[in-house]
Amino acid sequence: MVINTHLHFDHAGGNTRSIDDRDVLSFPNAQYVVQRGELEHAMSPTDRDRASYFPDRFVPVSAAGQWQLVEGDVEIVPGISVIRIPGHNATIQAVKIGKGDDSLLFVADLIPTRHHLPLPWIMGYDLYPLQTLESKRKWIGEIVRGSWTVVFGHDPDYAAATLHERDGKMEYEPVDLNR
Predict the structure, then answer these.
(1) Which residues pair with 82 in a beta bridge?
(2) Which domains does the chain have, with CATH numbers?
(3) pTM
(4) Confidence (pLDDT) at 99
(5) Does residue 35 contact residue 71 with C-beta atoms inside 8 Å?
(6) Which of 38, 61, 72, 115 qualifies as a cystine partner to 91, CB 3.0-4.6 A?
(7) In terms of Cα–Cα distance, which of 24, 23, 58 is closest to 38?
Protein backbone atom coordinates (compact mmCIF):
# COMPACT_ATOMS: atom_id res chain seq x y z
CA MET A 1 0.00 0.00 0.00
CA VAL A 2 1.23 3.49 -0.91
CA ILE A 3 -0.48 6.45 0.74
CA ASN A 4 -0.19 9.74 -1.16
CA THR A 5 -0.76 12.88 0.89
CA HIS A 6 -1.42 14.65 -2.40
CA LEU A 7 -0.27 14.31 -5.99
CA HIS A 8 2.22 17.17 -6.34
CA PHE A 9 5.39 15.93 -8.02
CA ASP A 10 7.48 16.20 -4.86
CA HIS A 11 5.08 13.98 -2.89
CA ALA A 12 3.96 11.49 -5.55
CA GLY A 13 7.24 11.17 -7.43
CA GLY A 14 7.89 7.72 -6.01
CA ASN A 15 4.65 6.30 -7.41
CA THR A 16 6.37 5.52 -10.71
CA ARG A 17 9.78 5.01 -12.23
CA SER A 18 11.05 5.05 -15.77
CA ILE A 19 12.13 1.80 -17.41
CA ASP A 20 13.14 1.88 -21.08
CA ASP A 21 11.45 5.28 -21.47
CA ARG A 22 8.18 3.92 -20.04
CA ASP A 23 6.66 5.05 -16.77
CA VAL A 24 5.79 2.01 -14.66
CA LEU A 25 4.52 1.61 -11.12
CA SER A 26 7.26 1.54 -8.52
CA PHE A 27 5.18 -0.93 -6.53
CA PRO A 28 3.19 -2.93 -9.09
CA ASN A 29 1.30 -4.99 -6.49
CA ALA A 30 0.31 -2.06 -4.27
CA GLN A 31 -2.90 -0.13 -3.91
CA TYR A 32 -2.23 3.63 -4.05
CA VAL A 33 -4.38 5.65 -1.63
CA VAL A 34 -5.40 9.25 -2.30
CA GLN A 35 -8.43 11.48 -1.80
CA ARG A 36 -10.84 11.14 -4.74
CA GLY A 37 -10.99 14.93 -5.14
CA GLU A 38 -7.20 15.14 -5.32
CA LEU A 39 -7.01 12.74 -8.25
CA GLU A 40 -9.84 14.59 -10.00
CA HIS A 41 -8.04 17.90 -9.49
CA ALA A 42 -4.66 16.50 -10.59
CA MET A 43 -6.24 15.34 -13.85
CA SER A 44 -7.47 18.88 -14.54
CA PRO A 45 -5.47 21.38 -12.45
CA THR A 46 -5.85 25.14 -12.53
CA ASP A 47 -3.32 27.45 -14.17
CA ARG A 48 -2.13 28.35 -10.65
CA ASP A 49 -1.04 24.80 -9.75
CA ARG A 50 -0.60 23.02 -13.09
CA ALA A 51 3.20 23.01 -12.67
CA SER A 52 2.87 21.00 -9.43
CA TYR A 53 1.27 17.98 -11.09
CA PHE A 54 3.35 15.65 -13.27
CA PRO A 55 0.94 13.22 -15.00
CA ASP A 56 3.65 10.55 -15.28
CA ARG A 57 3.46 10.26 -11.45
CA PHE A 58 -0.22 9.35 -11.29
CA VAL A 59 -1.66 8.49 -14.72
CA PRO A 60 0.06 5.05 -14.73
CA VAL A 61 -1.65 4.28 -11.42
CA SER A 62 -5.00 5.08 -13.06
CA ALA A 63 -4.13 2.99 -16.11
CA ALA A 64 -3.31 0.03 -13.86
CA GLY A 65 -6.58 0.46 -11.91
CA GLN A 66 -4.69 0.55 -8.62
CA TRP A 67 -6.11 3.63 -6.93
CA GLN A 68 -7.89 3.24 -3.63
CA LEU A 69 -9.85 6.49 -3.63
CA VAL A 70 -11.05 7.76 -0.27
CA GLU A 71 -13.23 10.66 0.75
CA GLY A 72 -12.61 12.49 4.00
CA ASP A 73 -11.02 11.10 7.15
CA VAL A 74 -10.71 7.34 6.83
CA GLU A 75 -8.99 4.50 8.68
CA ILE A 76 -7.13 2.71 5.88
CA VAL A 77 -6.09 -0.30 7.96
CA PRO A 78 -6.21 -0.68 11.74
CA GLY A 79 -3.87 1.92 13.22
CA ILE A 80 -3.30 3.88 9.99
CA SER A 81 -5.64 6.73 9.04
CA VAL A 82 -5.76 9.61 6.62
CA ILE A 83 -7.02 12.99 7.79
CA ARG A 84 -7.89 15.91 5.51
CA ILE A 85 -5.79 19.01 6.24
CA PRO A 86 -6.95 21.54 3.61
CA GLY A 87 -5.00 24.66 2.79
CA HIS A 88 -1.98 23.74 0.71
CA ASN A 89 -4.61 22.47 -1.69
CA ALA A 90 -8.24 21.50 -1.20
CA THR A 91 -7.74 17.77 -0.72
CA ILE A 92 -4.36 17.23 0.92
CA GLN A 93 -4.34 14.62 3.66
CA ALA A 94 -2.11 13.78 6.60
CA VAL A 95 -1.23 10.22 7.53
CA LYS A 96 -1.69 9.20 11.17
CA ILE A 97 -0.01 6.05 12.41
CA GLY A 98 -0.84 4.61 15.81
CA LYS A 99 -3.25 5.50 18.56
CA GLY A 100 -2.88 7.58 21.69
CA ASP A 101 0.50 8.86 22.88
CA ASP A 102 2.40 6.68 20.43
CA SER A 103 0.86 8.37 17.40
CA LEU A 104 2.88 9.77 14.56
CA LEU A 105 1.36 12.35 12.20
CA PHE A 106 2.93 12.98 8.79
CA VAL A 107 1.65 16.45 7.89
CA ALA A 108 3.18 16.79 4.40
CA ASP A 109 2.94 20.47 3.42
CA LEU A 110 0.75 21.66 6.30
CA ILE A 111 3.88 22.19 8.41
CA PRO A 112 6.64 21.58 5.86
CA THR A 113 9.50 22.47 8.23
CA ARG A 114 9.98 23.28 11.90
CA HIS A 115 10.28 26.91 10.80
CA HIS A 116 6.59 26.83 9.80
CA LEU A 117 5.34 26.14 13.34
CA PRO A 118 4.16 29.73 13.99
CA LEU A 119 0.55 29.78 12.79
CA PRO A 120 0.89 32.63 10.25
CA TRP A 121 4.06 31.20 8.66
CA ILE A 122 2.46 29.68 5.57
CA MET A 123 4.11 28.75 2.28
CA GLY A 124 3.52 30.91 -0.79
CA TYR A 125 2.61 27.68 -2.61
CA ASP A 126 -0.54 27.21 -0.54
CA LEU A 127 -3.68 27.74 -2.59
CA TYR A 128 -5.90 28.44 0.43
CA PRO A 129 -3.73 30.12 3.08
CA LEU A 130 -6.62 30.92 5.43
CA GLN A 131 -7.61 27.25 5.43
CA THR A 132 -3.96 26.38 6.10
CA LEU A 133 -4.07 28.70 9.10
CA GLU A 134 -7.16 26.96 10.50
CA SER A 135 -5.78 23.49 9.77
CA LYS A 136 -2.52 24.38 11.54
CA ARG A 137 -4.39 25.82 14.52
CA LYS A 138 -6.40 22.61 14.88
CA TRP A 139 -3.68 20.04 14.24
CA ILE A 140 -0.79 21.67 16.09
CA GLY A 141 -3.09 21.76 19.11
CA GLU A 142 -3.96 18.08 18.63
CA ILE A 143 -0.30 17.14 18.25
CA VAL A 144 0.61 18.93 21.49
CA ARG A 145 -2.39 17.62 23.47
CA GLY A 146 -1.85 14.07 22.25
CA SER A 147 1.94 14.09 22.74
CA TRP A 148 2.22 12.87 19.15
CA THR A 149 5.30 12.92 16.99
CA VAL A 150 4.98 15.18 13.95
CA VAL A 151 6.84 14.33 10.75
CA PHE A 152 7.83 17.27 8.56
CA GLY A 153 7.67 16.88 4.79
CA HIS A 154 10.51 19.23 3.88
CA ASP A 155 12.72 20.01 6.88
CA PRO A 156 16.37 19.68 5.83
CA ASP A 157 17.62 18.97 9.36
CA TYR A 158 14.89 17.26 11.36
CA ALA A 159 12.49 14.68 9.99
CA ALA A 160 10.37 14.54 13.12
CA ALA A 161 9.75 16.21 16.45
CA THR A 162 7.47 16.46 19.41
CA LEU A 163 5.87 19.87 19.96
CA HIS A 164 5.55 21.80 23.20
CA GLU A 165 4.09 25.20 23.96
CA ARG A 166 6.24 27.37 26.20
CA ASP A 167 5.49 31.00 27.05
CA GLY A 168 3.05 31.28 24.15
CA LYS A 169 5.54 29.95 21.58
CA MET A 170 5.62 26.57 19.92
CA GLU A 171 8.85 24.68 20.45
CA TYR A 172 10.03 21.43 18.95
CA GLU A 173 12.17 18.62 20.27
CA PRO A 174 13.74 16.49 17.52
CA VAL A 175 12.86 12.81 17.46
CA ASP A 176 15.07 10.10 15.98
CA LEU A 177 12.77 7.93 13.87
CA ASN A 178 15.40 5.20 13.77
CA ARG A 179 15.01 4.45 17.48
Answers:
(1) 74, 95
(2) 1-71 (no CATH), 84-179 (3.60.15.10)
(3) 0.94
(4) 87
(5) yes
(6) 38
(7) 58
